[in-house]
Amino acid sequence: MPTSIGPRQVLTDAGVAVLCVAVFWLPLAHSPGVAAVLVPALVAGVLLRSRWPAVAFGVVAVVTLAGALLGLTADPFVAAAWTLYPLVIRAHRLRFSRVVSVALAAAVAVLLVAGSTAWEDVLRYVMVSLLVLAGTVRLGMAIRRERTEAAQRAVLEERLRVAREVHDVVSHSLGTIAVTAGVAVHVAADDAPKLRDRLSRIERTAKDALTDLRAVLGAVRERPADRAPQPGIGDLEALAGRVRDAGIEVTLAVRNADGLPASTGLAVYRIVQEGLTNAARHAPGCRCEVTVAVRDREVVVEVTDDGGTMGGTHDGGGFGLIGVRERVESLGGELTACPRDGGGFALRAVLPGPG
Predict the structure, then answer these.
(1) What is the mean pLDDT of residues 174-184?
(2) Per the CATH hierarchy, to which homologous superfamily does domain 153-352 belong?
(3) What is the mean predicted confidence (pLDDT) over 185-197?
(4) What CA dihedral angle connects 183, 189, 193 and 198, to 10 degrees?
């Protein structure tokens, strides 16, 4: 299938064609009439490289072989190797290897049978040609394998990113709902207003979770119009408010955090979200302190709790902290998560700041 090409590619191919003619074909010692046909054919074949590499390789290889048999060129298939490289990258590996192997074997057989009587020169030329073509094949396959692995890594990284986002949204919302529902269970049956308040909080949290989940799923769509804004520093107060509604006392302090990149703002939000979610899940009734500060070109995020009043403990494991650590490290930061000496748990992240 032909591919779109730009002027730079055409100029590069033309330059290689002219260089090969100047180095390996000139001066034309004899048979100028035949050379007048082969040289333009060679140049035309090289110029077809970017659009039709298979055709280009076939034309250039045949022209080079004919020129070698007629004694018009000493080109060890360098021009053919130039047209072979994109073909190696695009072609199916097994089918292509068989085709090239047969073509090379045929070329060697023709050169050995129809070449000059100077067998040493013929063998030397054949060996150099084989090295040039084999090296091109190996290089092309290595580049193709590297590109394939890079594409696979990109897909895996995207899957991990989506998994982290979905986990952060669902885990936080379900944890808040669970805590709120647990409190509602202990509300007296005749206290309808209080019970209604708890149920309305659960409803709001569920709706917020659906909105966040749509935003996450929209972020992986190809059309930018389908993408909703991701949460950031400005959404921390609303996040803290939802956790307060679940019965957790939260103190939030944000200092000098204006103008952070969107990726850093999203990371800060997810770090705080994970810290508050863990506090609500493992230390019900606790008091949390959240601090976000930019200082010395670093963004420091700290989420601490006092352990609560119901004997909850953090295990420091789970996919949430793993995802947060991956997110922080992808931005070049560091994350620490450990129990506090006086009870409770501390989550601290240091991210590169602006400037």
Answers:
(1) 67
(2) Histidine kinase-like ATPase, C-terminal domain (3.30.565.10)
(3) 68
(4) 20
80 burial type by CB count under 10 A (0-12 exposed, 13-18 middle, 19+ buried): buried
**Residue in 318, 343, 346 with CA at minimum distance from that of residue 171:** 318
Residue recorded with tokens 């049978």 = 113
Residue 65 has pLDDT above 90, yes or no: no
- Classified as helix, coil or strand, 346 is strand
Report yes or no: 276 and 307 within 8 Å, Cβ to Cβ: no
Hey, what are 108's tokens?
Answer: 């060697």
Cβ-based neighbour number of residue 69 at 10 Å = 14
- Give me the pLDDT at residue 110, please: 66
Domain with CATH 3.30.565.10 in the chain: 153-352
Which pLDDT score is estimated for 300? 93
Measured at the CA of 253, the angle between CA 247 and CA 256, to 5 degrees, comes to 155
Amino acid at 153: R
